[in-house]
Design a protein that fits this description.
alpha/beta; Purple Acid Phosphatase, chain A, domain 2; 6-stranded mixed sheet; 4 helices; about 25% helix
């Protein structure tokens, strides 16, 4: 059994990230769906999470070169660019930032789990045997800070508020 932590859209709210990290460490791996914003936010996630972190770029991740340097020096972060395709605990996972792209990936039949962010809205939908998941936003701009835990064995999703 593998616990995948799905999060997105931190937007430099390092205080919410600090509050979330103890609970996130109950999981085995983090998939991040974009919009750290500043490289120091990625550094905080890398330092605070004990497992592997797989991340994609969002539209507000401005300094790709420095984000890449932070990821490379962290030792537990893989920065995939616009799209990550992963096998986590026997689960075929795709990660990107945009809802429309994610919907197409989920409909392709190639994945068990597709994760995205961008619109800051929690969503869990089953599309032909694939879970399409937006964990909401970490930043709390719209009032709710959240992330999602996906259990690869039971294929259950749990929203956790920060």
């Amino acid at each position: 059994m593998t616990q995948i932590i799905i999060c997105s859209d931190i937007h430099d709210n390092i205080w919410k990230l600090a509050d979330a990290l103890p609970g996130m460490n109950d999981g085995d791996v983090v998939v991040f769906c974009g919009d750290f914003c500043a490289p120091f936010t990625l550094a905080q996630l890398a330092e605070g999470f004990e497992g592997s972190v797989h991340a994609v770029f969002g539209n507000n991740d401005g300094d790709a070169r420095l984000l890449s340097r932070v990821a490379a020096s962290a030792g537990n972060v893989t920065l995939h660019g616009a799209l990550a395709e992963l096998d986590i605990g026997g689960c075929r996972v795709a990660v990107n930032h945009y809802p429309a792209i994610a919907a197409g990936l989920a409909a392709s039949g190639r994945y068990d789990l597709v994760c995205y962010g961008h619109d800051h809205t929690i969503k869990q939908e089953e599309v032909g045997g694939c879970w399409l998941v937006n964990p909401g936003e970490m930043m709390g701009r719209y009032g709710r800070s959240s992330y999602v835990v996906f259990d690869t064995e039971t294929e259950t999703l749990t929203v956790r508020d920060v």
